[in-house]
Amino acid sequence: MCGIIGYLGNKKALPLLIDGLERLEYRGYDSAGIAVYCRGKIVSIKSVGRVNLLKEKIAARRGVDGVIGIAHTRWATHGKPSEKNAHPHCDCKKDIWVCHNGIIENYKELKDWLIKRGHKFRSETDTEVLPHLMEEFYDGNLENALVEALKRIRGAYAVVAISKNEPEKIVAAKNSSPLIIGVGEKEYIIASDVSAILSRTKKVIYLNDGEAVVMGAGGIKFLDLSKKKVSTNLSGRTQVLDWDLTSAQKSGYPHFMLKEIFEQPESIANSLRGRLITDDGLVKLGGLEAVKDQLSGIKRILISACGTAFYASLAGEYMIEEKAGIPVEVDLASEFRYRRPIIDKNTAFIVVSQSGETADSLAALREAKEKGALTLGIVNTVGSTIARETDAGVYNHAGPEIGVASTKAFTSQLSIFALIVLFLARQRQMSLAEGKNLALELEKIPEKIKQILKTAPQIKKIAAKYKNFKNFFFLGRKYNYPVALEGALKLKEISYVHAEGYGAGELKHGPIALIDKNFPSVFIATENSVYEKTISNIEEIKARGGPIIAITNIGNKKIARLVDDIIYVPKTIEMLEPILNVIPLQLLAYYIGTMKGHDVDKPRNLAKSVTVE
Ligand code: F6R
Asked: Is 610 in the pocket of ligand 1 (CB under 6 A)?
């Protein structure tokens, strides 16, 4: 949610900032702007809309050839998308320029105070209080001004700033919103995530919450804001990324979303790699080793997440309860801490997050930790705040997910849940034979996904047939209920078509009233323990004239008499079905979205990595 990049080095900053903004654009894309120090002044250029509009504006300007600058791509919170609300924002004198990601909760009172002291505001944003506060406390040292400003604000922030008066440095700080420093050859890049850094360096430092940093020609200096301690020690802080640039590029696909859908055989193989001990029906999860004994005594599990990760968690609940026999509750992270969850030392709390930065998920994690739960993470982004704040966890290793609509992260989250289930269940009731079978079936998943992906042309035809319908139901039972919810979410977020996911048995309790020939239903009807029940639900819809698309197993001919269109998937064990069954739904949403002419990688009103509550 909002992308920040700053550059300081010996190369022209502007092209590098633009390249970084293009890579960060998926985090927010309603306006963008840059500020570059050039021969004694700071040049700022801003534009409403996508980064390419900013690029066009910049192309008309000459001589912006400075080697230090900051840039921002915005997802609006305070103040509508407009040029004046676009970052970077500056103080009255246009000396200090700031980009910010997050929310300053007490901005109103600070703004009133600053106005009384004569400051002139140009935007409606909360961010603008920062440069004015820095102006107020500026004593010839930019980092001191930043520290003084931060003392007065409440809320979440990742902030980077430059000043005309100290053009040799970038200062930055973080609290809850991500900031990562890339350490290159005689250059530093500071950004909201690694995708903007990878083209320059793989050496990164993750800034901690409550920490500020000063980067300059003389090196780098960290300031611990609460302990007021300064450190210049980089040892132990620099990590080398194992993501490469191709993983953050489209590699010939028209959209990141399609690339990420087609990457799933590989991303799941990466999630499983080195973790299954198939012959013994066991799993080796390095990230859980330290808490292995504690986990064997766990009596209850709470899971919390948002959006797609929440739906993966619902499937995780079914898996853990059925296979490991541990009671599980799943909460939306945005609700969790407002409902007084009951937690004791025998409770494990699992937070699931692709980005590892989602504000609600982070807040839920902190609440669970505060109450004494053992906290575990299923996180994709290495070094992210959630990954660092959990007691233990399992990384997804799915590679960067750039498309705003989550696809490969979902199937990876389901795969990691399967590994955790194997881990917990084999500590408890699961036999060697069942463990072995689960491990074997998991190993076969990537190949089965490849088979489903081959049916993309048929799914595209189905998408063409249904693209003009205005409403859809997505329906499934048991493990396929969360898949139905995820299928509906995918369609609504990238096609802007109204879609609702339901447990298929629930329709007759009200929603079936909506069914007519213009209201299609997508049934997930694979041959499992609830297949017969699902077929009864299909009959109910057919009897009322609703068009039906069914996802079922290869070889199921009988279903054809009931439904209008069929998408076939290979068989697997019931617990792993969601990993396969969601793939056609991702493709269906993708094709309907693109046929409607939408930018499926950057759907309207959305942004990747939701760092506001
Ligand atoms: C939907 C989607 C969102 C995210 C949600 C949580 O396609 O991407 O619903 O799943 O915002 O994000 P993470 O997993 O980063 O915590």
From this structure: yes
